[in-house]
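Hi R.,

As promised on Friday, here is the backbone we talked about, encoded as structure tokens. Could you run it through your design pipeline when you get a chance and send me back a sequence?
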């Protein structure tokens, strides 16, 4: 007996007569038809309820994580929260998000869950017609139910995946692809279907908007040449860090760093070669600080670093290490090896100043003193230095 709801067969009831039992009659058939009708409705309603419950769970998760994503403008945080949302809603083990640079020719950011760092670094834009390159070229999503039988993407490394089912969806902003989301390996080991693809496309539209907002914010607070924070962001961040240091009664130090004789390098070798110095010094400074520290290009050849939870003695050790590394590094301009050094001034909160402008001023005085007394040195603020340079 078929189970029918809205002219659609959703199942079948089968009964068999036992050995030496009387055959079914018309009354039995009527009763079975009535049971089948009620059972079909009950099953249909149960499926509707389960689907509605699943939809509520999806919408709740989407709302909660979307709020978290919208509350941050840090690109890395946006991408990590997006991965969490995808894995929860798609019920998957593995997800990766690739973000392109502004020119669309290189990968600017890549994050993953369930993939090793080595595999993530191997992802490239050039080479065979990979799923990634296909999605970037066509700007269309891809649903692969079984990679082993897929003829269009033979280069795909199927051994990485347990289910062999794969989805890849572009992140589009105004018809421009800014990245790609890849997901694979559902928890229940089933293949992805059309409903899964629709859900991922919906998520991708939201994530693309969040990523673009984060990128626009980064452009507004980042120095284009050195890719460090700019002067405005440094001032904003320092204000917050000083307030936090006041609240928790913690030390905070700032370093003001100036490249010695930089103008002479520019005049001798040209601004393009001078830019190479700026980038290399930036790389050294970045590698010398902690995640909680902040490096900014303060202006021209001058940099500033905020060191939270760091007294003057600790800041001095960090600054000396930076200075020594830069002094020993090789700088080649126009095929000539030259020596580059930096001068560094230090001031600390609350030892030297309790107000932001005063802290910066005293770090500047220390830097000025370092340059006036021979360069290539680190000077910590002392009251007697301020007396020497009382006009500042």
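Update: got your reply. Pasting your designed sequence below so it's all in one thread:
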């Amino acid at each position: 007996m078929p189970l029918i709801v809205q002219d659609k067969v959703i199942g079948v009831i089968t009964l068999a007569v036992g050995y030496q039992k009387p055959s079914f009659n018309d009354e039995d058939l009527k009763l079975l038809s009535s049971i089948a009708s009620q059972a079909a409705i009950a099953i249909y309603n149960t499926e509707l309820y389960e689907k509605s419950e699943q939809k509520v769970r999806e919408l709740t998760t989407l709302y909660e994580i979307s709020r978290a994503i919208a509350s941050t403008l840090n690109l890395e945080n946006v991408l990590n929260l997006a991965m969490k949302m995808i894995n929860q809603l798609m019920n998957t083990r593995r997800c990766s998000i690739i973000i392109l640079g502004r020119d669309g020719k290189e990968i600017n950011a890549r994050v993953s869950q369930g993939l090793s760092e080595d595999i993530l670094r191997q992802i490239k834009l050039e080479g065979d017609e990979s799923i990634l390159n296909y999605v970037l070229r066509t700007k269309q999503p891809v649903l692969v139910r079984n990679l082993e039988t897929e003829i269009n993407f033979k280069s795909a490394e199927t051994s990485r995946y347990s289910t062999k089912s794969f989805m890849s969806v572009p992140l589009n902003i105004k018809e421009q692809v800014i990245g790609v989301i890849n997901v694979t390996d559902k928890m229940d080991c089933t293949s992805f279907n059309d409903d899964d693809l629709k859900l991922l496309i919906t998520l991708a539209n939201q994530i693309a908007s969040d990523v673009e907002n984060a990128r626009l914010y980064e452009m507004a607070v980042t120095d284009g040449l050195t890719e460090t924070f700019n002067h405005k962001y440094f001032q904003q961040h320092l204000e917050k860090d000083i307030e936090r240091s006041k609240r928790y009664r913690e030390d905070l130090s700032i370093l003001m760093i100036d490249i010695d004789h930089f103008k002479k390098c520019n005049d001798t070798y040209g601004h393009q070669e001078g830019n190479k110095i700026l980038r290399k010094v930036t790389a050294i400074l970045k590698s010398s600080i902690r995640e909680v520290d902040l490096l900014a290009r303060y202006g021209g050849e001058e940099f500033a670093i905020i060191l939270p939870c760091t007294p003057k003695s600790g800041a001095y050790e960090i600054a000396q290490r930076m200075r020594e590394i830069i002094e020993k590094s090789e700088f080649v301009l126009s095929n000539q090896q030259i020596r580059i050094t930096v001068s560094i001034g230090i001031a600390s909160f609350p030892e030297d100043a309790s107000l932001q402008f005063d802290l910066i001023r005293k770090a500047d005085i220390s830097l000025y003193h370092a340059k006036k007394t021979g360069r290539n040195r680190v000077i910590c603020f002392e009251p007697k230095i301020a007396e020497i340079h009382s006009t500042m």
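One thing I noticed while checking it: The chain has eleven helices and 14 strands.

Thanks again,
M.
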